[in-house]
Specification:
The complex is a heterodimer of chains A (509) and B (309). Chain A has 509 residues and is of the alpha/beta class. Chain A is built from 16 helices and 22 strands. The longest helix of chain A has 16 residues. The chains are: A alpha/beta (509), B mainly alpha (309).
């Protein structure tokens, strides 16, 4: 018996200036199916699903929903057709309550708003799928995992039959991932279809019924999960063997460079974001900070480089307290940072590659002739960086926001490394990069480590931590809940520390 | 000052606050949808000029009022076109609108300068209420537009906070991505709110030239449009607080006249500064308190582009 697919996309193409994001893609989803859409960053997964969600209009191709051709030219049309998408950055109004976000824009909600009725409705929908949420809470008070639940309930309230989720596990703790998968299975049992956009193979193997693999805007393979394994999927995704460079761990780390003692740091919302952070960072080691985003990592790093002032506690650099030093003074000591948002905090999007390359040291005499910046000298300096760090570009005078993520990161990291840092702090250095670019970045970091630089990395992917770091500090709710040698711990142990387990209570092995 | 002088002052306060209230309510609506329109002064001037000219020529102040609504609305439509459809800079467009409105109203009203007008709105006494001692004189012996302005502000509060349309308007001003993702037409809401806001600014202008000082003079709004913009911030984007704010600023204006006639020489410059001074103070207090839900709409003055990556 041949079933009707709930979604059928045929010959979908979409071009953006300079790129073909989707090239004649065909894609099918059946009722009750959990369908993984797999591919590297930039493979065109999000574009394809944004077309299905009515956000982008395709240049060519047809879309059928339950066998009928439809034109999905707005999110409203897509919702009416029963297709809902949950984006990586949640589309929730922070200042509204959970219930307000859920009824917002829903055609069936009554004209007059009744708070109680709104909250009862929310509870009814959430309980029928086993999702717990407080309908009266404001969204900005919720954790990212809870916000994701609000998004799911929002789509269910609208009666969506197909739920598209873009990289849903990125912001979740391992425990929350398990819960999410339970919810997805429950939804699938009730006949809902789910499309998961992802690049994480282990999750695909765990949850998906069917996989479609995209590469460079084309479908390069699809099959039922039973007929696939991780090796085959990897080969489809990257079309080459990725040789993960073997990381040698050098046992001879040097002396302590940076010493942090009982540091407390205020967050943006007025409470302590870092409640208790103490650790030593040694020459020639990479220490990773693991933790679910929003547990104080950002504030900690900002306090170390001097962007944010600390409430109490000390930061010592080679035995001297540096709490009172400002950013530039710390840079001149050799404390450099690669921030989380490379475009925005790290680089100025509308300035050229040349201008961006000297942002850290533009005031140095080497760039001046008398009173004026000498752009010949600056240009030579920039050329040195882009050569050495393999930044691929079309014109040094073009604004950096024309560069791809990998090239941006190489430029940024290169700029910092050229300062000859003694301490290098980097937050999520490979976030959003494809496998090859990520390897380049890790290669650069390892080279720095071998030169004797002390490196502190904020990372989200536990596997990356195990591959590259020497030690790992786990942050939970503003405190460092444990510092472990990577050789002597396990993903499970770190995972449980990330959600608040105490080190002493954890049985090893 | 005896009690009658006080009631007269308070009654004058309400009249002086009314044009500001109309304009501020309109600006508040537009800002709630995420559109900052600094063209209020210009839209008020065009409303004042058109309202006066059309009333003089037709002999009907209601027709004049309609012309003022249309004038303010059309100017706001230009702003909406530039900022919503073309995603232009809202500050630049708004300032241009003010300068344009000032010139246009001066041009239109060239031959009407100083002409007296014998039409206009009579005070509408309400049964029983008007006869209340003192209170009646302060609150209930005004023209119909005064009553309408208060009802309008209350209605706007109800619309914004108690209906699903209000929820939609606020969501567009807070996070247009979120609104769009649930099928709300961001552009349409922004157009409607901006144009309705412009119509109210036009109405506020006409109130000045038809009721408050029934004549036409170049730049006769004298900065009330800017006070309205400041008032929206003062009111923390809440229409009911805008009513109080309008009367506070109206009271200062009424007091200025009163003091001058009494021969007390408080610098008029000082009083002209007052509304802005208060606004700055409110901004300082709000910023220090940092209440998330009490501040400006988060997407205020940010253009929305669905396909932006």
């Amino acid at each position: 018996m041949k079933r009707t697919p709930v979604i059928e996309m045929k010959g979908i193409s979409k071009r953006f200036p300079g790129v073909i994001a989707n090239d004649k893609i065909s894609f099918r989803v059946y009722p009750g199916e959990i369908h993984a859409l797999l591919g590297e960053n930039g493979a065109g997964k999000s574009t394809l699903m944004s077309i299905l969600a009515g956000l982008y209009r395709p240049d060519n191709g047809i879309i059928k929903v339950q066998g009928r051709a439809v034109k999905l030219d707005s999110p409203r049309k897509a919702l009416e057709a029963g297709i809902g998408m949950i984006y990586q950055h949640f589309r929730l109004v922070d200042n509204f309550t959970v219930a307000e976000n859920i009824v917002l824009g829903a055609p069936k909600s009554p004209s007059k708003i009744n708070r109680e009725q709104m909250e009862t409705e929310t509870r009814r929908v959430s309980q029928s799928y086993g999702l717990t949420i407080n309908p009266g809470a404001r969204v900005h008070q919720l954790s990212l995992g809870e916000q994701q639940r609000v998004e799911i309930i929002k789509m269910l309230y609208r009666g969506c039959e197909v739920l598209i989720m873009d990289e849903p596990t990125t912001v979740l703790t391992p425990g929350e991932v398990k819960e999410l998968f339970e919810i997805l299975r429950a939804m699938s049992r009730q006949g809902k279809s789910i499309v998961l956009i992802t690049h994480k193979l282990n999750e695909v193997m765990e949850i998906a019924d069917y996989v479609t693999v995209l590469r460079r805007g084309r479908v390069v393979g699809e099959d039922r999960i039973e007929n696939l394994d991780e090796g085959r999927l990897t080969r489809m995704m990257v079309a080459r063997e990725v040789a993960y460079s073997q990381v040698k761990r050098d046992k001879s780390v040097g002396q302590v460079v940076l010493s942090v003692d009982r540091l407390k740091v205020q967050g943006d919302l007025g409470y302590l974001a870092v409640k208790q952070a103490s650790f030593d960072l040694r020459q020639g080691e990479i220490m990773a900070i693991a933790g679910v985003a929003g547990n104080g990592q950002k504030e900690l790093v900002e306090a170390l480089v001097g962007i944010r002032s600390s409430v109490s506690g000390t930061v010592e650099y080679q035995g001297e307290e540096i709490n009172h030093l400002n950013v530039r003074e710390r840079i001149s000591l050799g404390i450099n940072m690669v921030p989380e948002d490379r475009i925005g905090t790290g680089l100025v999007p509308n300035l050229s590659i040349i201008d961006n390359s000297i942002l850290r040291n533009y005031y140095k005499e080497e760039f001046f002739t008398g009173f004026f910046l000498n752009y010949k000298k600056v240009r030579r300096y920039t050329e040195g960086i882009v050569d050495k760090y393999n930044v691929y570009f079309s014109d040094l005078k073009h604004p950096v926001n024309y560069l791809s993520g990998g090239n941006l990161q190489k430029l940024l990291l290169g700029r910092e490394i050229e300062q000859k840092p003694r301490v290098l702090l980097a937050s999520y250095p490979v976030r959003g990069l494809d496998v090859a670019a990520a390897e380049d970045i890790y290669g650069l970091l390892l080279k720095e480590r071998d030169k004797g630089t002390a490196i502190l990395l904020v990372l989200e992917d536990l596997e990356d931590i195990f591959r590259i770091a020497d030690r790992v500090a786990v942050m939970y709710q503003g405190s460092i809940s444990g510092i472990l040698e990577v050789n002597k711990t396990s993903i499970d142990e770190i995972g449980s520390l990330m959600v608040g387990a105490q080190l002493t209570g954890v049985e090893n092995g | 000052m005896d009690i009658n002088a006080w009631t007269a002052l308070l009654a004058a306060t309400i009249v002086a606050g009314t044009p500001i209230l109309f304009a501020a309510a309109g600006e508040l609506l537009a800002e709630r949808s995420g559109i900052l329109n600094l063209g209020v002064e210009g839209m008020m001037l065009v409303g004042a000029a058109l309202g006066f000219i059309v009333t003089v020529n037709t002999g009907n102040h209601w027709v004049g009022l309609l012309a003022a609504l249309a004038g303010g609305g059309s100017m706001a439509a230009i702003h909406a076109l530039v900022t919503v459809s073309l995603r232009g800079n809202q500050v630049v467009s708004g300032l241009a609108l003010t300068i344009f409105g000032s010139g246009l109203s001066g041009f239109l009203g060239k031959n009407y300068q100083g002409i007296p007008m014998n039409y206009g709105f009579k005070s509408l006494d309400l049964p029983v209420l008007s006869d209340l001692p003192y209170l009646g004189a302060v609150f209930f012996r005004h023209d119909i537009l005064v009553y309408f302005s208060v009802i309008l502000a209350l209605f706007m509060w109800y619309l914004l906070y108690k209906t699903k349309w209000g929820l939609a308007i606020r969501s567009v001003g807070e996070n247009p991505q979120a609104a769009d993702a649930v099928g709300i037409d961001v552009s349409r809401i922004r157009y409607l709110c901006t144009i309705a806001g412009g119509m109210l600014a036009g109405l506020g202008g006409a109130y000045i030239s038809l009721v408050y000082a029934p004549t036409w003079q170049e730049n006769m709004t004298a900065g009330r449009g800017w006070i309205a913009v400041a008032l929206v911030i003062f009111a923390l984007w809440n229409p009911t607080r805008a009513v109080l704010g309008a009367y506070l600023f109206g009271g200062v204006e009424a007091l200025t006249f009163r003091l001058q006639t009494m021969g007390i020489n408080l610098s008029s410059f000082f009083l002209a500064m007052f509304p802005y001074l208060v606004t700055i103070l409110v901004l300082v207090v709000v910023t220090i308190r940092r209440r998330q839900d009490a501040g400006a709409p988060q997407a205020l003055s940010v253009a929305y582009d669905r396909e932006e990556r």
